[in-house]
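Contributing new complexes? Match this layout with adenosine monophosphate.
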Amino acid sequence: MVDLHTHTNESDGTCSPAELLHEAIACGIRAIAITDHDTFAGYDLARSLANNETELICGIELSTKLGTQTVHLLGYFLRGDAPAKFRDWVAGLRASRKDRNRRLVTRLRELGMDITLEEVEARGRGMMGRPHFAQVLKEKGYVATLQQAFDDYLDEFAKGYVELDTPPIAEAIKEIRNANGIASLAHPVRIRAHIDTILPDLCAQGLNAIEAYHSDHTSAETIALLDLAKIHGLLVTGGSDYHGAVKPGLKLSIGYGRDLSIPSDLLERLTYG
Ligand code: AMP
Ligand code: ZN
Ligand code: FE
Ligand code: FE
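Output block (do not edit by hand):
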């Protein structure tokens, strides 16, 4: 079994890199990619705990812009590590997040909530996102659930929304490719534009793959995405998008009960085309 899309508590997951590796071994996962949002910190920690039971792949999930929509792009570095130049570029993305987070605190305070940047930062470890804000709003009793925090305040169309300045997807693809990485469009079903209409441009920009297997996809959607990959000459990636306790019921490589059926040779196909 393989899983090429997982998060640790170095971004918005709840498991430490060590816990994630233990879970992977317990689930019989042969190869796992850590794809934290805009950071390699989880991968770096996991690498130092190397074991022979599970192959660890260096990955990342970048927030990028396609038109006006935020679109997630996965990057995979199959030869072991992302180069320093790419890591520096990613550090710039975290700086941009910090700026958005400051503005988001200001906005939520305008809406009457007693919340500080320090409180948000205390819930994360270097990469803070809206899920950390949701946690603070819930702990302080402003909302009953994390979902309500998004619905009432943090969602793109909610009253507290503050935009994150993200790079255009073309720039992110280019940076991944220049770093000898593989760029894969994450969970394409979340994209509002029709996938058929955007893929030719993305292919021209250097996109390598699409994530056909993902916990949010129905089997019919996965089949349609596999067809599209074939038509456009793209590779295929897949993973559960494991986040630990914040996505209860989601299992590594399996997803929510219905097995994602990620092919066991997925990684080999990525490596050898
Ligand atoms: P950020 O990158 O900081 O803007 O936060 C984005 C993350 O927030 C996503 O990866 C999701 O985990 C979560 N998220 C975004 N929108 C929603 C929503 N409407 N409901 C629940 N979670 C959301
Ligand atoms: Zn996440
Ligand atoms: Fe994502
Ligand atoms: Fe993800």
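Reviewers usually confirm one structural detail per submission. For this one: The radius of gyration is 18 Å.
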